[in-house]
Amino acid sequence: MAAALTQIPVTTKKPEPKSRVIFTQPGKGGVGKTAFMTMLVEWYAAHNTEVALIDMDTENKAQGSLAHFFPRAKKTNIHLARGLDQFVEALDEGIPLVVADMGASGGHVAEEWFESMYEAANDAGIAFTSIGIVTPDPASVASVLDYGSFLQDRVDYLIVKNSTVKQSDFGYWDTDPQAVEFRQIFKPQVISMEYRLPDIEFEAREHGLTLNAVAQRKTNLPLLSLTGSVWRAQAYRRNIYKELDRVKDLLIL
Amino acid sequence: MPLLSYLYVDTQRHCVGSLRCVSNLWIVLHIGGLLMPKAEIFFITPELQQVLDAVPEQNDPRSRLEPLRPYILRWRRQGKSYRKILRILRHDCHLKVAYGTLHEFVKLRSRPRKPQPNIDLEPASTQPVTTSSAAVLPEARKPRITTEEREAARAALRASFETPLFPEERKPLFERRPGPIRNLNNEALGEKGNGSSTDTNSGDDEKAGTKK
User: Fold this and answer.
1) Measured between alpha carbons, how far is A160 from A145 in angstroms, rounded to an integer?
2) pLDDT tens-digit profile of A234-243?
3) Rounded distance, CA A91 to CA A209, Å?
4) Which residues of B touch A185 (CB under 8 A)?
5) CB of B131 within 8 A of CB of B115?
6) Which of A5, A138, A174 sits opposite B180 (nearest CB)?
7) From the CA of A156, how many Å to the nearest CA of chain B?
């Protein structure tokens, strides 16, 4: 009887996703999650691609969160019972790409959500791209590794090396044995986000302006209207778009 | 070895017991109309053998209605009532039979039984009646499953539960170990620094040794 059983080979190749949720990993705050996500949303817009936006950053209630830059972003409290269900409910609206900014807190909630919902989401053809931001701060690396330890290979990883200071040293990310192991196992795509002058970034954030808006001279704010600021914004935008184009497979279907 | 069965009858040829031979041992199945509570085994004696040999091969009909069985059953099939059959028996066959006796007789002999001689007395043009019990009872058509088949079915049943409905939790591909994140570049620099200081120390020792 046992001989009659057919052994089905297990394929490791993931099927083509029908939709994709791109989310920042919760964890270390102030590493530039929202700064990156605003550029990512602009990148989609530059490619004429509509995405559903979810803002789960409950700490930045008024300013600095995704909804501050993009009012159409749906603000959701991750700590509510069904908060993270927005991931998949946004897909019901017919847009196959969801971009969610998770904020610093809520890692535990996200873990619980993944434990219970991932299988069904996977069966429904939903792929996940987890964006980890690392800085010269070792705590940011620890946060990415902690999340990798939980998410395992259930997601695609995009690691953004965010230069928060000029001539940033990413030695912790580059040389830590566990970080090396993480890269060997999950083979994440790694992109760089160059150092941005704080006065430009802070001023833009304060007024809910994206770098793209500064680059397109869509503001009359004195500092951001300066040609130097505009050209710098254009350079930041160009470089990050190039990087995103390089890893587009993780960001589209 | 063929199985031999005998009825034990008295002088009036009434059945008073039955025996069955299994591997040269005789088992008493019943005596005096009562089933033996427990089968008893004994060796057959020459006297008993004589009695047993005198037993006719076929038992006589136990009911007076037995010779008329085909007719009675056919009448019933034709829809004649018990009372009408009783009248026929009384008037035409001179047989006085109680209603209950006739009813019981028909009931017992109408039941599907083991294969038996064809009792059909219908005209020759009708189809022969199949008396095989397998043809009568649909469930009887099912062949009895052998021990091997039962074992195979059991194994198949168990095999279908071998595979868990949900995949078992697999070993994590990556496990974050507790401890600080290290910058090996910095550590290498530190070792270099320590190394030079060690050299310095050793130099001091040497100096100290020289002093000594």
Assistant:
1) 13
2) 999 999 999 9
3) 27
4) 173-174
5) yes
6) A138
7) 14
